[in-house]
Amino acid sequence: MEHWKHEPEDHDYPAATSYLSLLVGTEAATKLVRKLQKQDALVHHAAKDLLRASRQQLLGTDDTEVAADLKKVKAGSKLSPVLLVEGDPLWVADGYHRICVSYHLDEKAEVPCRIVPRPSAAR
User: Fold this and answer.
1) How far is it, in rounded angstroms, from Cα 15 to Cα 118?
2) pLDDT digits (tens, 9 = 90+) for 7-55
3) Which of 28, 39, 41, 47 could form a disulfide with 24 if both were Cys (CB 3.0 to 4.6 A apart)?
4) pLDDT digit string (tens) for 64-73?
5) 1 within domain boundaries
6) pLDDT at 121
């Protein structure tokens, strides 16, 4: 927990909108991100579980973004919580690289997440 911020960065939300718009279109993505912004509660899940639920592959420490975030953590900087949309599979709206960083540091460590339900009409 020591390397996590309590709030997502402002730039995480446009990134989440961009990604989610590929899955559900711009209008639905905007609504989901508004819900994520309003969600104050953080939940915590192990990095390994987030990767499994999202069906994403673990990126190696040689990935440029993972490597950069690992350097930040080792320098004492904190990472932004991840933004998720629940469902099968779990959608990582923003924070995939940060989940991988956490896995490399300690796969069982709890990752702070903001999570909202997937609308029933979403694919």
Assistant:
1) 18
2) 999 999 999 999 999 999 999 999 999 999 999 999 999 999 999 999 9
3) 28
4) 999 999 999 9
5) no
6) 60
d(CA 119, CA 49): 22
What's the CATH number where 37 sits?
Answer: 3.90.1530
Residue owning tokens 């559900």: 24
Closest CA to 7 of 116, 71, 82: 82
Instruction: Kindly list the strands in the beta sheet with 43-46, ordered across the sheet, starting from the edge strand earlier in the chain.
Output: 43-46, 110-117, 82-86, 91-94
- Residue-range definition of the domain harbouring residue 34: 12-117
DSSP single-letter state for residue 92: E
Q: 62 in a domain, yes or no?
A: yes
Q: What is the token pair recorded at 118?
A: 């997937």
State the chain's mean pLDDT as an integer. Answer: 95
In terms of DSSP H, where are the helices of the chain? 12-24, 26-38, 47-54, 64-74, 96-105
